[in-house]
Structures are given as structure tokens and as C-alpha cells.
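Trying the structure run again after the queue cleared.
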Amino acid sequence: MIGHLHTVLRHCRWHSQALTVLIALATSQMMVPWPGLANGHDDTPRLDGIVLGRVAYEDRIDQTALDALGQYLVEMSDDLQRYETVLVQSNHEMIELLRAGDVDLVPESPFPALLYEAIADAKILVRQWQDGHATYRTHFFTQKSSDIERINDLAGKRVVFESPTSTAGCLVPKAAINDESLLVGFPGESFNRSDVGLIFSNSEMNALGWVAQGRVHAGVISNIDWADDSMTPPGLKKELRIFHTTPDILRAVMLASPKLPNLHKQRIVDVLLRMHESDKGKAVLRKFYSTARFDRLEGEALASLNDVRSLAHKLGMIPD
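Done. C-alpha cells:
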């Protein structure tokens, strides 16, 4: 437990004047109730503090988003008095925090979310419409003058991906290439004539430019970034064309620690599902990764999550 406490204290930011109470919360994981959750016949542990976590990609943006949602959850509860934010640098750190109950809620893209579900027994609660989108997909693109027409034509070619952890910019297109029985050679690995050689650009603009300049044969980008003129300038787009598009997958989800009692999970879900119905909730959602709303994982949303789970199995990210 001391190791978990040190990790939390190293990466977190507390939001309370009652420091002694917070130290007790971190060391003993004591809980007191959300409004309406406790009564004389309820043995559910009480909760007065909640911890929101994130594997940090952009610290300032992540901190602002978690602060906005944490404050809203406090304001929507009669008993919840404080929140904490925890930013870590890796999935491994987040898995350990979820297992220990040192983080209660985590917003994440679907592949890491399924990893947390499989290894940390985290619970995926709801779908998040991040950047206003419930789903997104990956476009494969090349120069207009290229003879590449389908994924099979990438054999022996070099393709630029965004980054190793990107969903639309790496994981989904890698699965699409594998589905065509092509091998993928990552940077530093041997590159055979039958393989697809990968390099990483670390930005959409770099990927677009490298393909347009002929430095690589093809690239990948999300449909959201392709449609955004600030991400894909029209002058650059006219030199390129899309030759393959993957099926839609979930944009993002919200997870909960396995240590968070089910009754508290349900209370949080109820709050999240209603946020888009009020002006105040909408304002918070805009600060929370430009989210349009949260909705339930059912119907096409659940089917999409299961599709991502199948892809994660194929990529060897989660056990069968």
C-alpha cells in the first residue's frame, strides 16, 4: 500500500483544505456516501472523495478536463466533498492504481480501456462522445498519382503511422494490414519485400506532408482529422486521396475501478448520462475533451465495443 501511496502523491493534485482527512483517505481508502446511496439498510461503504485518473498525453489539457469533471461530480452530490486527479505516464501505472482502488474513474480510448478491463478487472461504464463524436474510423491515404488502390498493394512499401499508442493512427490500421495476411515491420526491425514497413510521424501534419512529398508511400489518419481543415489543409488534401477506410469504432469510454462499489458506479453513471441535459453540464462536457455526451453501452455501441475487443485479441493486446 505504501508503494501505491507514493505513486499517488508523486503524480496527483489534491483539491481540499482538509489535508489530514485526505491523508487518511489515501492510506486507509475510507469511504463515506453519495447522496441517497446510504440508508439504515444499506451496507455499501460510504464515499466522500473520488479520484479521477488519466495516462497523460498532454498534461495541461488532461488536468483541465479532469478538474472540470471532478468539480462537477462534487457539486452534484450532497455528500461528496472532494476530488483528486492523478496523471501517470504509462498503462502499467494506471493498471496498478486501478487494481489497488487508488483511482476510481478513468476516461480512455477503447484499446487501453479493454486492457484495463482484462488485467485490472476495471468496469467499462459508458460511451463518451469525445470531440463530439460517438465513433471514428481510419483512412489510408496516398498520393493522387500513386498506383496504390488497396491494402494488399502496400506489400514492400513504407507507411507512416502516427504513434505506437494511437488507436486510429496505429492499432486499427495495423489490424487492417494483418487482416490482409501482410506482415508489419516496425522501425528498427528487418524489412522484407513482402512486409509493410512502418515509420512513426508523431503528428498528423507530418504524416500528410511525408506522403505528399513522396518520402513514404502511404499514411493513415482518422476521419475526424481528415475532415478538419486545421489538421488537413485543403491545399495539402488536394494532393492526396483515400484508398481504404476501416469500420467505425468507439471514440472513447469511461471506466471505474473494481474497488468502487457497484452502487457508487451506478450513481456516477446516472450523473454522466444526464450531463448533456443542462447548460451547466454541457459547459463541463465542453471542458472535458470537448465531449458532446455520455450514453449507455447498448445496441450499436456495445457491438462496436465488441468489435474493438476482437481487434485487441487479434493484435495480442488482451488474452482470449
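The longest helix spans residues 59-75. Worth checking whether this holds up in the mutant runs.
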